[in-house]
Amino acid sequence: MKLIEKINDKSAVVGVIGLGYVGLPLALEFALKGFNVIGFDVDKRKMEFLEQKKTYIKHINSEKIANAVESGRFTSTSDFSRLTDADAIIICVPTPLDEHREPDMRFVIKTANTVADYLREGQLVVLESTTYPGTTDEVLLPLFENAPNRQKLSLSEEKTKSFTETSYFISEEYQFPKDTHKHFRVGKDFYLAFSPEREDPNNKDYSTTTIPKVVGGVTPSCREIAKALYDTIIVKTIPVSSTRVAEATKLLENIYRSVNIALVNELKMVFDKMDIDIWEVIEAASSKPFGFHPFYPGPGLGGHCIPIDPFYLTWKVREHDVSTKFIELAGEINTFQPYYVVDKAIEALNKLMKSLNGSKVLILGAAYKKDIDDMRESPSLKLIEILRDKGALVSYHDPYVLRLPKTRKYNYDMQSIHLSKHNIADFDLVILSTDHSSFDYEFIFKNAELIVDTRNAFGKRGLVSSKVVKA
Question: pTM score, two decimals?
Fold first, then answer.
């Protein structure tokens, strides 16, 4: 196949849509391996950073960006008409939940419509965004099969907006004229695949190129070409029989983690009532060389995957009259954790004859996990909301998040405060939400009046006293 030949000699142009935590490192790896890469994003601020050879993601250093840009093989743009220049198009856009905890597919739908506008024969399109099984076949495939007719249609602006923003599937009202009705054939005229992202920001042991990649195609030829593309940068690719299997693989990975984290979060609450330290129990259980893998409790789930992905499956299986009680229960337990942390804070303040209402509370850590600047679904944001609702005066400190960005749900006008002896002592309560390695735990321990530790960060450093409460 001609496209495989272009991939093998690296003359194929790779387009990556969405230059966030998944798309940017992927684009850089292709560029540094010798491909010409076009990065697409609607956020023009990212273009400015990249043009200046600077990073906007902490764990991706500016030197890597500079090397890719200076090689002349990596460019970024908000001009999506350049999709016609790409031989392979990889979609890496968000798939959040809406206010009803159901899949919010707007970003995938909009992107897929844009790709369909410019799709040409011979192109490969790969979706990497985590989603429910069936998305590639049921949503993207019909759009791309009808791509040849799109520019021949004369739709009103109102109908076009409705089609691109709210319709999951092609509506019957969009009928193609018989004399221009032509279909692209998947596996012949274009190629379509799904390959779930497996990024783990700031993981010291694994990176984009060293994490094996699952690849599923709509047809065998689609899978073959997608595998050939990823084989050029990934240490190992795992081909599977369909896009649905690939989509389900990603969900299983994250549901596995969600369920096990829910288990230790529940045991944390149970053992606390029994005056047993869950952290000591986990450490002891970890001594078993088989049959046990440690998971750790915390203030709630964060990141773009674990708090969200299980609900994509629970939503989809309703079509099949199947309930997912186990998965949904795990979600409920994990969602409750910020409330549990606040309850422990209230108990701790009560022992000092203080009320949470009117108390000054400092949250340590705003990112969803340590040593990164990723704020997506961070439990710290929920903690701020609950604490404020109960009348607390809340501040935060995070060396990697100097100002809380606007998110889909929250818009806090807050800046990270400086950690000084006076500042720490001025708070009635310090809640450790994210255990960054850069925190001076001894300094905080010495100067704080009361600490609620959700990560056992003080305990494992031997900083134990009645003023440290685990939650």
Answer: 0.88
Q: Cβ neighbours of residue 73 under 8 Å, at least 6 residues apart? A: 31, 32, 34, 35, 36, 37
Nearest CA among 138, 77, 81 for reference residue 105? 138
Q: Are 375 and 368 in contact, with CB atoms under 8 Å apart?
A: yes
CA dihedral 263, 377, 375, 26 (to 10 degrees): 90
Q: Which residue has the tokens 């790709």?
A: 115
* 2-240: CATH number: 3.40.50.720
Q: In whole angstroms, what is the distance from residue 465 CA to residue 453 CA?
A: 12
Which of the following is catalytic: 37, 139, 147, 305?
A: 305
Q: For 383, how many CA atoms within 13 A lie in the half-sphere containing its CB? A: 36
Q: Say whether 222 is catalytic.
A: no
Domain 254-470 coded CATH 3.40.50.720: yes
Residue 103, pLDDT score = 87
The one-letter amino acid at 39: G
Instruction: Determine the Cα–Cα distance for residues 30 and 175; give it in Å rounded to an integer.
Output: 39
Distance separating alpha carbons of residues 326 and 414, to the nearest angstrom: 37
Q: Worst-scoring range by mean pLDDT, 165-174, 236-245, 406-415, 425-434?
A: 165-174
Per domain, the residue ranges of the chain are 2-240, 254-470
Query: According to the model, what pLDDT value does residue 202 have?
Result: 80
* pLDDT bucket at 419, cuts 50 / 70 / 90: very high
Confidence tier at 160 by pLDDT (50, 70, 90): very low
